[in-house]
Amino acid sequence: MAGAINLLVQSHPINSALSLIVVMGSLAAEYLLLGAEFLAAVQVIVYAGAIMVLFVITIMLLNAGKEERTKGSRVATLVGVPGVLIGAVLVAWTLVGRSSTTHSVSIGALWGAPKDIARLLFHDFLLPFEVTSVLILIAILGAVVLASRPDAAAHGVRKDG
Amino acid sequence: MVPLSYYLVLSGILFTCGVLGFLIKRNIITIFMSIELMLNGVNLSFVAFAAHWHALSGQVFVFFVMVVAAAEAAVGLAIIIAVYRTRETLNVDQVNLLKL
Q1: Which of B6, B8, B33, B34 would best serve as a mutation to test chain A binding (most A beta carbons within 10 A)?
Q2: Helical ranges in B1-100 per DSSP H
């Protein structure tokens, strides 16, 4: 479902950003089918909402045009495509070869209730949760520092310029 | 009832598309989006395995992966903006010096 749409990610940065939003949305539907409704909501809010808005704003801010082809991109295409295809075929072959023992996944079982996830998150995974909040704080600070004007951040360093 | 291997194959396809985009694309924003695509493919296999084994820990793990991806996107886009301000380009082939 999402893989076919995903192949649209090809020409222009804004086009690939929009098709990435489509992929995120269909992945949220997939999570809903798997019974993880909390994760589907989080996927829509965080990925399709926050991260993709960030991407689109950056693309428009930087006025990104069509990418140009260079020599390096041709080398990467020639070497990368066969290598990745070989890897994908190996993975698929392994999966299909062993899939006789794997069982089916029931659709819409709806056992991933937010209540159970919250109990797990705030009892068993409390320390990682708090560490993650510190990580988010550091990320916010880093983003603000990096995106601020360089001559405002490094005022005393640029004497030679 | 959908077999587990279908979800795994879809997740592998997503991951492969991410790797392909990472290798082929020359635009730094598109490369960044391919990284997000790879993370999503891994998330899908996490959820599929969690549903298969009836273990909620997989979903909590996906939650953490999403949080880390959000932090990474914020910092990475800030880096991209800083690079564009100094280089005036988004092509990764022209960004070949650490210091101007």
Answers
A1: B33
A2: 4-24, 28-53, 57-87
